[in-house]
Amino acid sequence: MKYIIGIDVGTTATKGVLYDENGQKVASAQRGYPLIQEKMDQAEEDPKLIFDAVQDVIFSLSQKRKITAISWSSQMHSLIGLDENKELLTNSLTWADNRAKNVVKKAKADGLAQKIYQQTGMPIHPMAPVYKLFWLKQEKPKIFSRVKYWLGIKEYLIYRLTGKLVEDLSMAAGTGLLNLKTLTWDQELLSQVGITEKVLPKLVKSSDIVGSVKEEYRQKLDLDENTKVIAGASDGYLSTIGVGAIDEADFAMNVGTSGGVRCLAKKSIIDKKAQFFCYPADQGYLIGGPVNNGGIVFEWARKVLLGPNESAEDFLTLAQSAPVGSRGLIFHPYLGGERAPIWDANARGSFVGLTRSHTKAEMARSVIEGIIFNLYDASHAIIQSAGKPHAIRITGGFVQSDFVRQMLADVYNLPIIAMKNSEGGTLAAMFLGKQALGLSPDLSGIRKFTSEEKVYFPNPENVVRYQKILPVYREIENDLAKSYEKLAYLQNKLQ
Ligand code: ADP
């Protein structure tokens, strides 16, 4: 039997899944690593520790088996600098590192940020390596000038295993330096940053074979010269196709701690208000919006409204006892600022419309409704541009109950397909491996590896109720938006 390893390089851990040649999961392994957060807005990782974790995972899965390919699903927007000998000069500045926020503020004021979005599809946010590069140049000029190669974490791992410096389009798109029209590094932006194409990885397709594993690691990891390393892709792209959302007909939504809505469009689409990203991929363009406030807000409400010892199920039971629409109590879930759809780091949460007759149950329900209204709004701009999907395929810890799934169907007025597989990223990485080895001709083949758990259809009565509430939710959101900066300022002062 031959096997493919799909590796998901996450922010807190790397997970590997061993698949047999029929695409069946055989084994899995996981290794964690710390996030370095010593300074305000810093969120770094040590690339060497991640490489160690990846080696551990590969070794525990290879075990004298015939591994034909190792393929990747990776966290996006990280930035690492290497010197002329390709040794590390920086840690990995992850997507959660916000130290470039003043660079973004300035770029917004002088129009550069809007231009970057228009040319690359990368939303206006400090997570983008393009802004991190400006920040490093300004704050750490010595390191900036010593760096001879800039790359992200997946590129670093592939470099260590194969000696090749390559980046697939779906990851390159997340740097904010890839031109959406030409699908090459954007020369104008590179010169604005003060770098040339020579310091960036060579662009390849996600399903390209990068090469074989270097001799030293073949021995160490129990692999041989027939093990091919595949370029792989971003976790955003792979978790979308990994649930079978392979064209505009289906959207993919994952809501765990945070969340995201994505679809694979045939053409690139840029939003006038820069509400969603547009990243090229091997097949089509990934359009989507990441949201900060998913299960993390549910968790907050469970603890604060019920108590730290009550379970998620207790909270759901309480919320379920309240009527649809929580009798006009509206909750905005921006406890952690927000990315899509409002892209405002200063946004704050709110209950609006409280009366003396409102109950704890209604507060609980309005929290869940607010999280879903926000997801709906993040999807709304995409729906307006890419068209209404036939269904939404969902995964993640927040969407595991019938109650939440039905609410999604009622707010979206669409069928909601709960997917069985929560490992879409490694599954799709494995599929890229199959494509690279010539075993699967096109993307549609991925559907046979995915399975649906249950479909939820909208309840027409509830749909009507939610359609009355949504415009009010938005109106309040617009009214509150102008106070967020002042609120954030006040909160910092009063700490
Ligand atoms: P991640 O992979 O992002 O860490 P998961 O998909 O495991 O997240 O989901 C974890 C989140 O799901 C937590 O924020 C938690 O509060 C939330 N959660 C856990 N159980 C439930 C539940 N029954 N209903 C809604 N949310 C839940």
UniProtKB/TrEMBL annotation:
Q: What is this protein called?
A: Gluconate kinase
Q: Does the keyword Membrane apply?
A: no
Source organism's superkingdom?
Bacteria
Q: Which residues form a coiled coil?
A: none
- Domain Carbohydrate kinase FGGY C-terminal, first and last residues per copy: 253-432
Protein family (similarity comment): Belongs to the FGGY kinase family.
Q: Which GO terms describe its molecular function?
A: kinase activity; phosphotransferase activity, alcohol group as acceptor
UniProt keywords (A-Z) are: Kinase, Transferase
